[in-house]
Amino acid sequence: MNGPTLKRRTFLAGAAATLAAPAVAQPAKTATLRFVPQANLTLLDPVLTTALVTNNHAHYVFDMLYSFAADSVPKPQMAAGAEVSADGRTWKIGLRDGLKFHDGTPVLARDCAASIARWAKREPIGQLLDKVVDSYGSADDKTIELKLKKPFPLLLTAIGKPDSSLPFMMPERLAQTDPAKQVTEMVGSGPYKFVAAEFRTGDRVVYEKNDAYVPRSEAPDWGTGAKIAHFPRIEWRIIPDPTTAAAALQNGEVDWWEQPLSDLFPTLAKDRNINLEIDNPKGRYSLIRFNTRQAPFNDPRLRRAIRLGVKQEDYMRATFGNDTSLWRTCRSAFPCDTPYELDQSADMPGDYDAARKALKDAGYAGQRVVLMNPTDFPAIRPLGLVTADMLKQIGMTVDLQEMDWGTLVQRRASQEPVDKGGWSIFCTYGPSLGYSNPATSGIMRGQGLAGWFGWYESAKVEQLVQDWLDAPDAGRQKALATELARLTMDEVPYVGLGQWFGKTAYRKSITGVMQGMAPYPWNVRPA
């Protein structure tokens, strides 16, 4: 029989109670937008980390050659357009007029070529591109030229990808930074400038409007179109406690809360001054990530045991409550409602007895499992608590180490064993679209030390991904993706915990908040 389900959100008792605090509202038509992000911002370089809060920050400061629209098609952003040679081995991307970096220098093709090259050393689909690039260069100041060893039809999809680790354009002097080291300045060409003098991690991030930014003429559409900055100044207020953030929103101390706690949805929905809306209609996919480089989860048999014990309903209810319009189970290596969704329910029975037996058969001898869990991230913390409870129920020795998200983001880079500060497991999530195909899904890829945290290594996976890229038609790609999904369930670099649809909350004193892959700052304006 399965063990008892962890009581729902015992760490936030009373969170949905009526909130009250002294109002400190701004006057209408204010010059400053006050925004509460999903988590604290600690790492600023969007190439160095996959943390979504860093990606969201980067949308303010930087821009992309191509970007993702609601129709899932990458469209020109900084680019005027692109052309490819008849043999598919030379790509030329032209830059549109009026592009300038925040330091006043023009955006040149060589800046963009260097930016693509740096990004391609770290990002999964970028690394596939990098393998076939002969040279990253420029035909002239306004034309990027990529010469390839073989055709790469998904090039625009790669540089216009929708989720984290995006190829943002930087000045060449910054883009020449070692990809494993953080850039020293936040100088982009985006609609807002980063105000370094006012940055205080754990407290505040400040951006000022880039008056030199020339937007496109098309209507804004997710990451594409006219990125018009209507507010002269935007302040991020770091408020890790959900009840405090909710009170601040209700009382007009902040204007927009990116990711409210679901327990508070009913309270916020009743407030006639607040809009509460689905932010990403494609949803997000939660997961357990294993450190496959260190014991005990360098043994795939132990990872399979965890997969057998995971009951997705427990995770989703602990995090998002009983409103199933906000979440669903998704027992598939690829997120549900994406092209390669596969029913793999038989591999995830949610059976503690089966998990205990698998641990015993694998010879598990009580090795310590270090589970890192953020205290300040409501969409993730319950996942870790349910995991800790499940691991104990099936007989594992669990060391639950709770910390703020910024510390976890930095600590997950450690490849040391647990007795030297390393880790075994953490829980996280990502946009469903980001995990929707073999090339872009960093959690599925088997790149070892060159891959995502956990460093899963599989030559077979990498060959299947390459075969998928080279496949002659959609039918063959589907067959290869199915094989990858089954291999992933067997090797278990991660375990899916469910799929969910979050809401964002903002005061009716602002308008123009768009759906998409990030809380975009453009188009938002006083109502």
List keywords for this structure.
527 residues, alpha+beta, 7-stranded mixed β-sheet, globular, disordered N terminus
Written account of the structure:
With 527 residues, this protein is α+β, with helices and mostly antiparallel strands. The chain is built from 14 helices and 21 strands. Mean pLDDT is 93; it is low at 1-28.
How do the helices and strands line up, and which of them pair or pack?
Elements lengths: L31 E5 L15 H10 L4 E3 L5 E3 L2 E6 L5 E6 L13 H12 L3 H9 E8 L2 E6 L6 H5 L12 H4 L16 E3 L9 E6 L23 E5 L4 H9 L5 E2 L7 H6 L3 E5 L5 E7 L9 H10 L2 H9 L6 E2 L23 H10 L6 E7 L6 H13 L3 E7 L1 H7 L13 E7 L27 H12 L3 H18 L2 E7 L2 E5 L2 E2 L13 E2 L1
Parallel strand pairs: 1-10, 1-11, 15-16, 15-17
Antiparallel strand pairs: 2-3, 4-5, 5-7, 6-7, 8-9, 9-10, 11-19, 12-19, 13-17, 13-18, 14-18, 20-21
Question: By helix and strand content, what is the structural category?
Answer: alpha+beta
Largest sheet: 7 strands, mixed
Distance between the termini: 55 Å
Strand content: 15-25%
Task: Report the mean per-residue pLDDT as an integer.
Answer: 93
Low-pLDDT runs of 5+ residues are 1-28
Strand order, sheet with most strands:
8-9-10-1-11-19-12
State the total count of DSSP E strands.
21
- Our Rg estimate from Cα atoms comes to 23 Å
Number of helices: 14
Shape call: globular
Helix proportion: 25-40%
